[in-house]
Design a protein that fits this description.
The structure is a homodimer. By secondary structure, chain A is an alpha+beta fold. Chain A has helices spanning about 10-25, 55-60, 75-85, 90-100, 100-110, 125-135, 165-175, 230-245, 280-285, 290-295, 330-335, 365-380; strands spanning about 5, 25-30, 45, 65-70, 120, 140-145, 155-160, 180-185, 190-195, 205, 210-215, 215-225, 250-260, 265-270, 310-315, 340, 350-360. Chain A is built from twelve helices and 17 strands. In chain A, a hairpin with a 5-residue loop joins β9 (about 190-195) and β10.
Chain lengths: ~375, ~375
């Protein structure tokens, strides 16, 4: 059996372990500490820093393929692992587009993929540049760190060229953060397209989903996206498969999309299992985690057929009371069919610590079931 | 989070790990070696002998509850673990009925549960006893070791009181094996009833399945049992729930049944996740492994609702060529929706090394899909 190495010890590696167990494929993870989400459930967990070249090379030795549970492994390190003879999927060239938002925008624009208007913010005179950009595209602006953001971190909305914006930009400049700016797109809603691509070149697309965000964090995913017309859904799938192909992605590619009056625009890319795909564990014939393993192992991809008319995934965020287990009794008794996933993470207010999934025929009912379970696991009786 | 300890490192513990990961419940296993099926995929695997009292007590220390992936832990040891303050589910008193076929038969008969005619074979003059039993019930006879059997081991069919039978009984007597005899039931087919019971007393029953055996090994499970009338299905569920209740089972109880012209008869009991329940991983809203965890943790039980009109599970047995992974490509390309489960075990001819599951509407088609995948994983092109 080939050994799959996954750099990163978060919940994505943790859930990949469930799929690896089924396939009989040994999974090795590189985790920052033995207390990491994935390290708690993987027999072959190596402790180290996945940003350190030495740790990464030591980890990769003996793996048949290396993949990632996040975007933070430096590209040059990935290239060195490949040169040591262990293929990385995705490779450094493809992953660059998920690591650097400016690289991604430039490439997608060159490919003719619709994106919001954007520009690099020059480190000299950034405020004047922002003002000029706003004159063309209007306020508010979306200011982003080109690298290193996640879950709304590294993204700021500037309403005007006021003192707040000036101070923020000044602070980021001092910290050496490279910035870009984008038009604030007046979208109807956010969608996500999840596809897989294997080294052989096979592609597979999941149904398009709607993602609901609060404060930059995804709270809910509805599969399939309600009321989305077939043409737009097919367009979104084609767009994602095309991007995967053009960028040479191997493994999963999640494309976050804005649905606007004028069509679809790409927001972000991720090349790994993605929060918008957790619903596939129960809601699709092949979970995104199994699909990612199949893709990075260059096995034929699995069926993306949904298992129910609608599936709703709700993220469980940490509340004030860390004893989530105590609240299992109510959630499980209230709804014996809701599926609970907890990531083995310390509970901190607002932190993603798990998710729940409900499936069924009636979207309103399914959505209410998922929300109730997620809210209850967070708040208990408090918020009822 | 409570720690669940599972004694035994086989595939049942391995698949329990997948469910434990989702629930965020730390699973600790006691495995004979680091190469055991479950030890390969559980971070907290302790290596030891689950028949040794010292190893068992050391293992149980720090667990909130202890359960089992087989029936071979001696009852007195389980009692000592309980006396050390760690509850065992099932407890020694209940488990005795799955460990000793004579204890089981005596108890079920006392409860009025229909069983085949049976008797203990007295160690003195066993052959005369078998002859007398056959005079009453007819040949062939089923001779069983009262303890220690599994997968057809410990069960013999005697066609007549010939030299073969005399030699076998003589050999078993010499080895000190305690024997019982049963009427060979002319059954139509074999069924299995899988139920869960929690310490609180909640019960949950899965749909009744048909099990297909070859040479004492289950090769295929069809859920629900095709053509089974509703009354008989309900009777089988009631029977299993009643037995679980009467015996004080906590966790899962699998009841293997004969369907005969005159109704249902109990064949065997198992108090753990069971081969006849592997279909529930994809085919039921709550897998048997999650259900077992919920039951032993005294959490509310999960929905046993099927996720598809029919599900077929086929066991993958070892063939001549140990490189099963090489055959993944064909199986996955041929049927992107079939689910493959491999147990990380060394391949030996005839050994259960995994299973596959197919789901759908048309039983013949689903059955053919499951069989094709299982056969191909065993034989490759050879048997096509």
């Amino acid at each position: 059996m080939p050994v799959v190495g996954m750099a990163g010890g978060g919940q994505l590696a943790r859930m990949t372990q469930q799929a690896a167990i089924a396939l009989g494929v040994p999974l090795r993870v590189l985790a920052g500490s033995a207390g990491d989400s994935a390290a708690k459930v993987v027999a072959d967990a190596r402790i180290g820093d996945d940003r350190s070249l030495d740790d990464l090379l030591a980890f990769a030795k003996g793996c048949d393929v290396v993949t990632f549970d996040h975007e933070h492994v430096p590209g040059p390190h990935i290239q060195k692992v490949e040169r040591s003879g262990v293929p990385c999927r995705p490779d450094a060239a493809a992953l660059a587009h998920a690591q650097d938002k400016l690289v991604m925008r430039d490439r997608l624009s060159a490919l003719g993929v619709p994106c919001p208007a954007y520009a690099h913010v020059p480190p000299a005179a950034p405020l004047a540049f922002l003002e000029a950009f706003a004159e063309e595209h209007g306020w508010p602006l979306v200011i982003k760190a080109t690298r290193g953001g996640y879950d709304g971190k590294g993204v700021w909305i500037a309403e005007a060229l006021d003192r707040e914006t000036a101070e923020m930009v000044g602070r980021l400049r001092t910290e050496g953060v490279d910035l870009m700016v984008e038009r604030h797109v007046p979208f109807r809603r956010e969608l996500a397209a999840l596809v897989a691509r294997s080294p052989y070149g096979q592609g597979a697309a999941y149904p398009i989903v709607e993602t609901v965000q609060e404060g930059g964090i995804c709270t809910e995913v509805i599969a399939p996206a309600p009321g989305l017309d077939e043409d737009t859904a097919a367009e979104a799938q084609r767009l994602a498969l095309g991007v995967a192909d053009s960028l040479g992605v191997t493994g999963l590619l999640a494309v976050e999309l804005f649905e606007t009056r004028d069509g679809l625009l790409v927001n972000e890319l991720a090349m790994r299992p993605h929060n918008s795909g957790h619903w596939t564990i129960e809601g699709a014939r092949t979970s995104q985690f199994e699909q990612h393993l199949r893709a990075v192992l260059d096995l034929p991809l699995g069926s993306t057929e949904p298992t129910a008319p609608c599936t709703v995934m709700a993220n469980v965020l940490g509340g004030d009371d860390p004893d989530v287990y105590r609240r299992y009794i109510h959630v499980m008794a209230h709804d014996p069919a809701v599926k609970v996933h907890l990531y083995g993470k310390d509970v901190r207010p607002g932190r993603k610590i798990g998710h729940v999934t409900a499936l069924g025929r009636d979207l309103d009912e399914v959505r209410e079931r998922a929300r109730h379970a997620a809210d209850y696991l967070r708040w208990g009786e408090k918020k009822r």
